[in-house]
Amino acid sequence: MNGTFDKRESVVAGDFDNDMDVDLYVVCAESAGNLPNRLYENDGNGNMTEISGAGGAEGSVNGRGQSVTMADYDRDGYLDLFVTNGQGAYPLNEGPDQLYRNTTNNGNNWLQVDLEGTVSNRDGIGARLFATTPDGKTQLRENGGGIHWCQQDQKRIHFGLATNEKVSQLEIYWSSGILQTLNDVNVNQVLHVVEEGIRTKVPGDVNRDRKVDILDLLVIIVHFGEDPPSNPYADVNKDGVVDIQDLVSVIEIIEGTSDGVAAPQQSFLTTSTTTPNMAIDISSLSDIEIALFHTFYEKIEDLSDNHTHIDIVKRFIKNIIMPESNPIITKLYANYPNPFNPETWIPYQLAEDSQVTIRI
Predict the structure, then answer these.
(1) At a CB cut-off of 8 Å and minimum separation 6, what does 31 contact?
(2) How open is the CA angle 55-61-66, to the nearest 5 degrees?
(3) Do residues 241 and 235 make contact, with C-beta atoms less than 8 angstroms apart?
(4) How far does the chain reach from its first CA to its final CA, in angstroms?
(5) Does the predicted model carry a pTM greater than 0.70?
(6) Does the CA dihedral 36-37-40-41 come out positive or negative?
């Protein structure tokens, strides 16, 4: 981030110039008075540059900066700001409240969405919206209710669209589990969307076969570490990266410890009569699929993630490749990936401990 960053009291993030990246506005203050507020523009390449004079919204020298809220109060498609400056005892609490109208007029298009839940909560809190435009870009917005320090932003979802003249696809993942898709949405409008549809999306069903099993784990393992994911379904929790949390989410559903909204149909799973754990039948898996599990099991210790999550995944995969309830045989599996790659893994299992000699 380029520019100074003084003591901050409140922050809002929004696409103030509708150019398809999220900017920051920061209310600043010190213990005995006000400091100029800051506006940082996102250049779309991971850089935030301070705008001189905060674009005209530096704020008052009186009082003490307290909070900022963000809303398009005049419905022109550009986000406006309301700043309070009354934090502290007299005379700091005499600072003015200030409304800053965004006068940007760069011709960029926009879309705003009002959500109305029917199966989910009335305001659609918890929904995640993905807007894909003709330029191939996809933007994410989350409806968290707009709550932050001493303020609440508008619940209306705002997308800047730059010069795109439509939203090719708008996907709404409601908290109920319903996925609602709208195509070819017109720009420069406030769109009211009422939740409709059925829970066609089974939580954790990564490979879209309408059941949750270890095949879904395989898809996540194949795409593990992708940021952003090339397969959006592998990102189970929709946080923009395929990681250990996605594996844990699916494992919890398989084991029945998740509070998902729909009970998945489970395959490759049978309840053992000798142990409360799940015994996993891997007879339907190919050698390549088994090799994938072996490979990931060997690498999981190198991850720097939550140790509890690592232990959950490691225990589960171990039960797949080395099930305690089934007799194990000595077997050499196919290497993965093929030998033309910089490295290849050759998984094997032993019926009993013994010395292993590898000759190349």
Answers:
(1) none
(2) 80
(3) yes
(4) 51
(5) no
(6) negative
Between the alpha carbon of residue 182 and those of residues 176, 207, 208, the distances in Å are: 18, 22, 20
Q: pLDDT digit string (tens) for 242-278?
A: 999 999 999 999 887 654 433 333 333 332 322 233 3
Residue given tokens 């409304």 in the structure block: 99
Contact between 354 and 348 (Cβ < 8 Å) = no
The identity of residue 181, as a single letter, is: T
Q: Which residue is associated with the tokens 């270890």?
A: 214
Residue 100 has, within 13 A of its CA and on its CB side, a CA count of 24
Contacts of 16 (CB under 8 A, 6+ apart): 23, 25, 39, 41, 55, 78, 79, 102, 104
- Three-state helix/strand/coil letters over the chain: CECCCCCEEEEEEECCCCCCCCEEEEEEEECCEECCCEEEEECCCCCEEECHHHHHCCCCCCCECCEEEEECCCCCCCCEEEEECECCCCCHHHCCCEEECCCCCCCCEEEEEEEECCCCCCCCCCCEEEEECCCCCEEEEECCCCEECCEECCCCEEEEEECCCEEEEEEEECCCCCEEEEEEEECCCEEEEECCCCCCCCCCCCCCCCCCCHHHHHHHHHCCCCCCCCCHHHCCCCCCCCCHHHHHHHHHHHHCCCCCCCCCCCCCEEECCCCCCEEECCCCCCHHHHHHHHHHHHHHHHCCCCHHHHHHHHHHHHHHHCCCCCCCCCEECCCECCCCCCCCECCEECCCCCCCCCCC
Q: How far is CA 18 from the centre of its chain?
A: 21
Residues 169 and 138: their CA atoms lie apart, in Å, by: 9
> Could you report the per-residue pLDDT of 273-313, keeping only the tens digit for each?
222 333 345 667 787 888 888 889 888 878 887 889 999 99
Helix axes 287-299, 214-222, angle to 10 degrees: 60
Inter-residue contact 139 to 159 (CB < 8 Å): yes
